[in-house]
Amino acid sequence: MNELVSLHLEDQVAVVTISNPPVNALSPGVPEGLQRSIAEAAADPAALAIVVIGAGRTFIAGADIREFGKVVSGEKPRRSLLPLLLEIEDCAKPVIMAIHGTAFGGGLEVAMAGHYRVIAPSAQVGQPEVKLGIIPGAAGTQRLPRLAGVAKAVEMCAFGEPVGAREALALGIADAVIDGDLLAGAIAFAREAAGRPHPKTRERQQKLRDADPALFDRARQQAAKTRRGQLAPLAAIDAVESATRLPFDAGCAREAELFDRCLYSTQSKALIHAFFAERGVSKIPGIPKDTPVFEIRRAAVIGAGTMGGGITMNYANAGIPVIVKETSQEALDRGMAIIRKNYASSVKKGKLLQAAMDQRLSLITPQLTYDGFDQADIIAEAVFEGMALKKQVFAEIDAIARPGCILASNTSYLDIDEIASATHRPEMVVGHHYFSPANVMRLLEIVRGKATGNAVLATSMALAKKLNKIGVLAGNARGFIGNRMLTPYLREAQFLVEEGASVEDVNQALYDFGMAMGPLAMSDLAGLDVGWRIRKEFKHLEKPGVRVPLVADRLCEMGRFGQKTGRGWSRYDENRQPSPDPETAALIEQGAREAGIERRAITPEEIVDRCLFALVNEGAHVLGEGIALRAADIDVVYLNGYAFPAWRGGPMFYADTVGLKTVLARMEEFRLRASKFGSGDDLWSPAPLLQRLAETGGTFTNFDRQKEVAAGV
Ligand code: 3H9
Questions:
Q1: I need a surface site. Which of 334, 335, 639, 642 has the fewest CB within 10 A?
Q2: Of all atoms in ligand 1, which is nearest to the CA of residue 78?
Q3: d(CA 342, CA 651)
Q4: 63 CB under 6 A from ligand 1?
Q5: Considering only CA atoms, which residue is closest to atom 19 of ligand 1?
Q6: Do 172 and 146 form a contact (C-beta atoms < 8 A)?
Q7: Measured between alpha carbons, how far is 100 from 54 in angstroms, rounded to an integer?
Q8: Does this model's pTM top 0.85?
């Protein structure tokens, strides 16, 4: 016995309790403790049956993912859980797994080795390993199809979505749902089971025989579409398929082979990095977890445009009453119509009940005045991007808002300190930068002005969670983290078309890399007028003589704003499907000719490297300047705000996997090439941090700015 797993006898049933907070992961010591407890209970003549249960908030949430990090870096070999699971399954006394919270990954695999599973109504079970770039590694792909059927096992193992208690019961994963006290119910179930022969999952065959052989290819096609570029979903399908073709032991051996292949892949390293990065962003040095936060009971939003409408929906979705204000009835009606349309489309797709839609709409108060703003705990501004207008709005709300009300700007580029200077309470002013569509995208950049109070930041982080967003702290630099980095990324995309690549070449190369869409397609989706407006705002900061893109402004002057006008970099039909636009191509060629740019053939590799290394170099500036706290925070921004492929880990992690020396060498090639246009040093000088890490063999992932600051570096 050890502290992680304990054993006691209750009502002639041995109760094995796993206690490894926070999620009872199978860390070293837990499997060993389980093994000893089960053996001791099996040998105890006073015990009729055995119940395994998790202490705290959950059953076992899986293998300890931190251990995989060590395996990947070669520090520790993998210890197999398989022998333990066979021992449990072969135990002479019935073993009942009592599930609450989540039985995920190795947790479900342990549960399936028991003879019976009882489950709390709110519990979930799943094999989410693919989300970490691996597959179940302890016979999950072999036992699950025997319990739930092959089709469901393929779905759960290849796509990683969990099922709730009632579905688990219907599928045969669980044997009973226990309302009320789970342990008491499990003990009662165990006493009843004690007299009966108990089934071994690995010996069940019926559901394997029922499988439709065509389902594997269908699943592969689905994975190729919805998990583009990822290895693990395909490996999971192969592993489940082997359950239908091979005896149990051989199926397990095949699973182990596929598991190892996935575990040692860069994809799993990247996805595990993304898992911990997402959970690390809320940890802000100097703002401990117990920092007091303001309660947000009522919200107000200024502006019912694309962003304001989405932000309003976020509050309503979280059950927070929200006022949305516009300046004209027409704009207000238009905004509310879009909100209603968005909800109605969720109802139509079966994602939302009509009653929930009605309830959410009832929380929204559309109006043209500031009435009720004095009651709000937060006022979110989402008006057009322009400093003069923002300052005017902040001066107005400063005069109305009650003390203790947070004033948040949704600016995507502007200086939060200057906005705050329009108020008498800069400590209450913060940036809440949402990403379009704001009701869908999970990222929220929380921008710290020089006066922003810690309580405001802590509240913003907590609020992000409540709104089902991932809050990332950003410093007050033009474009903050995400958009600041986007500028050089989009710049290179435009230079590439000027130098000879087609719009389609550029979009395709980045799409093939794994981005949800190419850079120019993304610009067309966001609206070319957005960047145009920002460029005008910052025109005075452009350095004379440095090369700037030639075509985007011309497209805007012609009223081609992208998808919304049907024309931009590409042409769009009424279903927003793109096709090449010869007029845009001619415009690009003309611009290049006038500027004396010699056009040439450009490889997809050059397209990817130029766009991404420009992005990474700016990321290194952002990190070195402390605009982002950690490289992992930058990765979270790009994974959740810009659809960077999670299996690449984010731009900074990707650069680490390429190797910073290689990145630097490639940038030098680009610098020399750009020198032809007189802008090599301005555009391709490496960020000091990138240079230093490349020279010292460091990585972005291991760079700890806080440590360096503390050490006075
Ligand atoms: C696996 O099982 C492979 C098998 O086939 C076996 C092969 C041999 N390990 O998410 P939260 C930490 S693969 C280590 O904020 P929630 C997490 O980092 C695994 N740590 O809470 C955080 O730490 P901190 C398959 C873990 O309530 C804290 O717990 N399983 C693990 O929002 C709280 O986490 C999965 O993929 C872990 N397995 O959500 C499940 N899980 O406080 C992954 C969590 O220091 N986990 N932590 O930041 C989850 O999906 C969610 O964490 C869960 C709780 C739903 C469980």
A1: 334
A2: 8
A3: 32
A4: yes
A5: 62
A6: no
A7: 8
A8: yes
